[in-house]
Each structure stands twice: as C-alpha cells, then as structure tokens.
Amino acid sequence: MTTPVNLKANTSSQLNNSTGRAKRAVLAYSGGVDTSVCIPYLKHEWGVQEVITLAVDLGQGDELEPIRQKALQSGADESLVANVQDVFVREYAFPAIQANALYENRYPLATALARPLIAKVLVEVAEKYGADAIAHGCTGKGNDQVRFDVSIGALNPNLKILAPAREWGMSREETIAYGEKFDIPFPVKKSSPYSLDKNLLGLAIEAGILEDPWAEPPEEIYQMTKAIADTPNQPEYVEITFAGGVPVALNGETLAPVTLIDRLNQLAGSHGVGRIDMVENRLVGIKSREIYESPAMTVLIQAHRDLESLTLTADVTRYKRGIEETYSQLVYNGQWYSPLKAALDAFIQQTQVRVSGTVRVQLFKGNATIVGRKSDNSLYNTELATYGAEDQFDHKAAEGFIYVWGLPTRIWSQQTRG
C-alpha cells in the first residue's frame, strides 16, 4: 500500500482554485475510513488549522460515544454528537409521507431525506463555532455530494465546502495507508464488499455483487426485513391512524414519532415488508442498482395514499400526483431548501387538512395490503355508491350527463367520417 505521489501539491492547488484556504472546518463525521482520514488530510494537505467533527444520530443504531472518541484519536480538535431523531421524523419524514414521496415511484427516500437535516446541523454548528468551512467525505460519483453542497449553499452561501474524497484520488487501500501514518485506528474485521447507509427510516445497500443488475441479492445483506421463508405463516393486521396526514397511532395507541416509526419497522420487517430492488437514475447521470429496506415508510406511504383516496376530491387527488413526483425528484436531487420545494410544501399542507382517519393494513409474506379505511371526513357516500335498495343515485340524470359529456366526441366523429 502506497501513498499517491505529489498528493499535497495537486490537491492544494485544486483547493485554492475552488474554495480558498479554510481556518476552521466542521466535518460531517461517521467514524468510517473516509471521514476519519479527512481529519489529518484537511490539516496536513489543505492547511485547515482546526477540524471540528460532528456525528449526527439519525437512529442508525451506532454507539456514538466511541465514534466521538475515535474522531479525537484521529486528530479532531473537538468532537460533537447531535441526536436529531425526533426532528428527522417530524420535520423530514412526516412531510415526505404527506407528499407520498417515492423516487421513481418506488424508493421512499430514506437516505435522501437525512442529508438536508445533516447539512442544517452542520451549518448551525459552523455558525456557533465561527467556522468558515464545512467538510464531508462524499465522493464525486454519488448523489450525497450534491445534497450536501446544495443544502449548505442554500442555508449559508458564505461557508466554504471542502470535499477531500472527491479530489484526493486515493484507492481504499491508499486511504487506509494514509490514515495509518497518523495512527488512525482501523479495527480488523471481516471485509464486506457492500456499501451501507442506515438510519431510522431505512437502509441503502450497494456495491459488490449488487453492481450486476442480473444478480439476485444475497440474503446476508438485509438487516431490517426477514426473508419470506422466515416470516409468519399467518397474516397480521395493523391499524394506522393519521391526523392531518401525519401518522399518530398504531392499533389505537398514540405514539411519539420516533417510537411509531421504530415499532412499525419491526412489525412490517418481521413480515418481510419493505424490500426494494431497483435500477435508479442518479442525479450525476449514471444508472445505479440499489437495494433498499424501508419497512415503516413503505407501509405508511401506502396507507396515507389510500386514506387520501377517501378524503380528497378527485381533482385534488389527480393534481397532487404530479406534485408528488416533482417533490420526490427535488428531495432526491438535494433541493430540500429550494423555492420550488417551499411552494410545493404550501400546496401539500393545504391538501392535508382533511386527511385524518384510520387505515387497516394486512402484513403477510412481504406484502402490505390495504383491507380497510375509515374517516370522519370521508367523501364516500354509501347511499350513492350502493346497488342495494338504499340506492339514492338519480339514474335518470345519467342520460343527459352522457349526452353533454360525449357531445364533443360525436361532433368530431361527424366531421371526420368523410
């Protein structure tokens, strides 16, 4: 393992051209190889005088105190931890559920939703500590670099953005060798070819054999969902109550937002619900095979959309579908803080005023099936919908309606028959 030649000269030149010198930087820190190596790299190659690391707790399940200590061992001048799970659910996940946000109509955006919140906390810390730069460990091929850079620029355009891994040109082996020069601990463990990103809303899995879109994902990659063969042989039902488009209770029990998501993750995941295998279109222009696990978000969006079918008028429902697609693209593309996103938020919030009620979902062998819904705001009128003796629909009115409705088509037909 060797360190790249002329590393300092090349990267310093790039930094001067793109961002200028930074005195104090706040680094988004995960404890992994790249973000750990970023600490000495920023100091020794780019001349950053002080590096403050920030580990953000989004419910990924990691013990953050060891991560905080590792940052200090890796040369950080200060190491911070922020628990923002509640904010993550209330201010990012719940609005996405109200928007029925599914990228390319499949992916519930668990990872994408985390990035604008991390960026927000980074900016707040930078402003509090008087930092002039924010750093992250994103590479130049993924979506996260865009999400971080655009969000930071929207929140504080005066902050420099430093992305060493985007410019240092080191392989994984070379990156580890560079870190070892500065006594950064890299625990010996079984090598995994997979790249994982987990938070309370889901797990994203890529790389390794998954880069072949024909290859079936091995069962070992999954963490949040059971294999179908291991799921119960009897269906289980869950009733999800919404208030203003926001989930507030499971099976009649009112729950705090984080608890609700966590409990539904476990419940749906135990039935194998929430696995997604897709080839998606990355913002940077390439296609990528991605595996996702997102049990709770999968069920909640499906249930919420069904409740809307009961409580919204047809024209609002149809129009909102287009808004939802645009909204999902904005989130995926890192434009959470954009003017268009703010405008769409206003529309979506207006539509949610009457979206309250309960949806009954059957969980069984990887499927979440809506089997019932009810609401005090229901627009469903049994007396109009029934074919029984209680039918109050005026059948005689249909003939005149059909005549007027079909008039343009009949006129067109008469003029074009020849």
TrEMBL record:
Gene: argG
Span of domain Arginosuccinate synthase C-terminal: 194-412
Classification lineage: Bacteria, Bacillati, Cyanobacteriota, Cyanophyceae, Chroococcidiopsidales
Native organism: Chroococcidiopsis cubana SAG 39.79
Record protein name field: Argininosuccinate synthase
Top-rank lineage group of the source organism: Bacteria
InterPro entries, per the entry: Arginosuc_syn_C (IPR048268), Arginosuc_syn_N (IPR048267), Arginosuc_synth (IPR001518), Arginosuc_synth_CS (IPR018223), Arginosuc_synth_type_1_subfam (IPR023434), AS_cat/multimer_dom_body (IPR024074), Rossmann-like_a/b/a_fold (IPR014729)
Residues bound to L-aspartate: T139, N143, D144
Complexes and interactors: Homotetramer.
PROSITE patterns, sorted: ARGININOSUCCIN_SYN_1, ARGININOSUCCIN_SYN_2
GO cellular component: cytoplasm
Pathway: Amino-acid biosynthesis; L-arginine biosynthesis; L-arginine from L-ornithine and carbamoyl phosphate: step 2/3
Domain Arginosuccinate synthase-like N-terminal residues, every copy: 25-185
